[in-house]
Amino acid sequence: MMKNQSLPKEDVAKRVEKHNGATPYSLLWYNCEHFVTDCRYRSAASLQTEKFCECLKSIIRDQCRVTVTGLLGIVSILCFGMAPSTTLPTILIPLTVQMAG
């Protein structure tokens, strides 16, 4: 996980005692995994937090894609009138995009 080499156990224990309570807890920015990697490798990192943020970004991108597709469908209905050839894609394409995401 970490590129740096782990510190010796004695140094890790000293860092734990020194840093314990020094930084306020934050679920995303400084949680227990951040604390441990900071004490052990001198670099605070959390793989779980990184994965969560990537997942959240993916969900937001997918929602934007669905919204844009829906708006394009509405514009096509307004431009070409209410017909099965415009109405069905307006409903089905955003639904399919959302289910695929």
TrEMBL record:
The keyword Phosphoprotein does not apply. PROSITE patterns: LRAT (PS51934). The active site is at C32. GO terms for molecular function: phosphatidylcholine-retinol O-acyltransferase activity. Keywords: Membrane, Transmembrane, Transmembrane helix. Residues 1-48 form the LRAT domain. Pfam families: LRAT (PF04970). This is LRAT domain-containing protein. It comes from Eleginops maclovinus (Patagonian blennie). The lineage of its organism: Eukaryota, Metazoa, Chordata, Craniata, Vertebrata.
